[in-house]
Amino acid sequence: MPYRLRDALLVALACAACLAVFFRGQLLDGFTLLLGDRHDGVIELSILEHWRNVLRGTEAWNRTAYFWPVPGTLGYNDGYLAFGLFYGLFRGLGADPFLSGELVNMALRALGFLGMQALARRLLGLRLGWALLAAALFTLANNLAIRASHAQLFCVSLAPGLALLLTEAVRALLAGRRRALLGWGAGFVAGFAVWLLSGFYMAWYFVFFSTVALGCWLVLAGSEARRAL
User: How would DSSP label each residue in 113-179?
Assistant: First the structure.
């Protein structure tokens, strides 16, 4: 079997195993018990249904129906844009709103697994086994598992992929590769905009952490590396 195909199968199997562990409750009870509650969970589903209507062209993107006719009500809560794009797909395939909402959570965790695996390989240069371990630890992190009823926290799944885009943009900048800088940079800006419209404070923490990490790097990197930057 070619190495690339074998590696892809290992990544897919590891991702599926992590999702099965994280969502074991839903899988074992046939999706009759879902994450969320009668308050935050219902609010989230109403906004996801809003994005489905936006994709169908029946609602303005920035006004949710439950405060009609007040304008600009999307900003009253987390925007859930990234969630809504997945949700529209699952609803289009025939899933009901509650099942679609749970499938969105699973899709985001899968996206986080794949992003962390790619980040570990490209940025840290880890071998496949170690990269899969890093992705598994990120996906199964207990701090999200015990607060998974707050679906907006699943936005952290976007962090590895955006970190990879940002890293590649910085590499292109330092190497003077303008086209690559434009491509990676545009991808990061678009992805970060989606993140802000999905769960604002998770995106804010990403900026906060990145700023602190940059400060630490500037202290530790040495004068030659700082001059290069």
Answer: HHHHHHHHHHTS---HHHHHHHHHHHHT-HHHHTTTTSGGGGGGGGHHHHHHHHHHHHHHHHHT-HH
